[in-house]
Design brief:
Length: about 260
């Protein structure tokens, strides 16, 4: 499970550029929870994912994953049990390396590595079978350099890499925002299928209200560094965009002023 306990983060403190990004956030997630995170620009959505991933130290609070306090762990040590897909399709893969080489690196996440054979025949067959499930024809292009793939293909590969070793927590940071609507829909469906098949505890940040409502078993909305709404169960299943906007206005005393949250 995941516990965020009173986490706080302020950037550029005691300057005119001071920004309170996280203001006493508390969140508990159980194994298998798929939580979508929505809110306006600067609400703290991506900041909360960066905090969990260990991008920088917290000012205050604790982060506990599967019973282990990771608050003091650096980013590369947390990577052993966290999978992440970024908004930019270029960030999750090594473009000058082949598809099979990227998958081999992902498979060895968190393991000690030495001077031994790079990719075995058994591994190569496993990669072919896994890529075939994507339905993108990548199983026949194992030696193709990743930089030659389209944005959607690259993001699908990144998703596969992030979940290859079944992480304790999967972080999806607006991972379809840079894709065209049709490709974004395919990547979202693929994400949903992988999360359900492996019962991965998942946090998905999105600007799109419709996607936040359609996916996951729970929805949280952030505003000014705080979680102001936490909706699950039958209440979430009955949600519509107008209802969600109304709930946001009541909880925040403000209106959600971002076009991206309203457009599919």
């Amino acid at each position: 499970m995941l516990d965020l306990i009173n986490i706080r983060k302020t950037f550029n403190p005691h300057t005119i550029n001071e920004k309170v990004a996280l203001n006493g956030v508390n969140l508990h997630m159980e194994s298998g929870d798929f939580v979508t995170v929505i809110g306006g620009n600067g609400a703290g959505k991506s900041t909360i994912l960066n905090a969990i991933a260990g991008l920088w130290p917290l000012d205050e609070g604790r982060i506990v994953i599967d019973g282990q306090d990771v608050t003091g762990l650096c980013e590369y040590k947390r990577a052993a049990f966290i999978g992440r897909v970024f908004q930019d399709p270029m960030m999750g893969t090594a473009g000058n390396m082949q598809i099979e080489e990227n998958l081999a690196i992902a498979k060895r996440r968190g393991q000690k590595r030495g001077l031994c054979i790079g990719i075995t025949k058994e591994e190569r067959q496993q990669y072919k079978e896994m890529l075939a499930t994507l339905g993108l024809g990548l199983e026949d292009r194992l030696t193709t350099k990743v930089k030659l793939l389209s944005g959607g293909q690259r993001q699908a590969l990144t998703l596969l890499m992030a979940t290859l070793t079944k992480p304790k927590l999967l972080l999806l940071d607006e991972h379809t925002a840079a894709l065209d609507p049709r490709t974004a829909g395919k990547v979202l469906e693929l994400s949903n299928r992988i999360v359900k098949e492996h019962r991965l505890m998942t946090l998905m940040v999105t600007h799109n209200m419709k996607d936040a409502i359609a996916y996951g078993n729970r929805l949280i909305m952030m505003h000014q560094g705080r979680i102001i709404l936490d909706i699950s169960g039958d209440e979430k299943r009955c949600l519509t965009v107008p209802v969600l906007m109304n709930e946001f206005a009541k909880a925040s005393g403000d209106e959600l002023a971002t076009d991206r949250a309203l457009l599919s």
